[in-house]
Specification:
single chain, mainly beta, Immunoglobulin-like, ten-stranded mixed β-sheet, 1 helix, 10 strands, 10% helix, 38% strand, binds 2-acetamido-2-deoxy-beta-D-glucopyranose, Pollen Ole e 1 allergen and extensin family protein, Pollen_Ole_e1_allergen, disulfide bond, signal
């Protein structure tokens, strides 16, 4: 148990060391965090404000971590995370990070706690840079929800 905790801590700190502090931002990744992400054809229920997530990218060939950056949702459950140059060619995913800010909507839904990022076509622009979307809406569920 203690070993597992230490392993997780080491893993997180090595991911965090990938965090890019440069001003050279070349785009953004956006997506949404909701309560009960299975409702309404996957679009989900109420948006969750102040949910924390993290984008993590890996080199497709070596699987080495290339980028990690935290984000937080706004009033309508939307996050927007800055990208560093070059990660469009990597495999990136957005994972829920820490716990839900909502005490009554905090259970993990397997498969809806993480999403790939779709770099095929930008969905718009932000600050004159391309904006890419997460493939799926992610979120937490209420206790007893049939969302799974
Ligand atoms: C998502 O949830 C599943 C099932 O609880 C868990 O095994 C997995 O580690 C979680 N993934 C992330 C990225 O948190």
């Amino acid at each position: 148990m203690a070993t597992a905790v230490i392993a997780i801590a080491l893993c997180m700190s090595s991911l965090l060391s990938l965090t890019y502090a440069g001003a050279n931002i070349n785009g953004y990744v956006t997506g949404k965090v909701v309560c009960n992400p299975c409702a309404k054809k996957g679009k989900g229920g109420a948006p969750i404000k102040s949910a924390q997530m993290m984008i993590i990218c890996f080199d497709k060939k070596t699987n080495a971590g290339t980028y990690a950056r935290k984000g937080i949702t706004d009033d309508v459950g939307v996050y927007k995370i800055a990208m560093k140059p070059g990660i469009e060619k990597d495999d990136c995913e957005v994972r829920l990070h820490k716990n839900s800010p909502l005490p009554d909507c905090r259970e993990i839904v397997p498969g809806k706690n993480v999403t790939k990022v779709d770099f095929s076509t930008p969905v718009g622009t932000s600050n004159n840079k391309p904006l890419y979307s997460a493939a799926k809406v992610i979120g937490y569920k209420t206790k007893g929800s049939r969302c799974h």
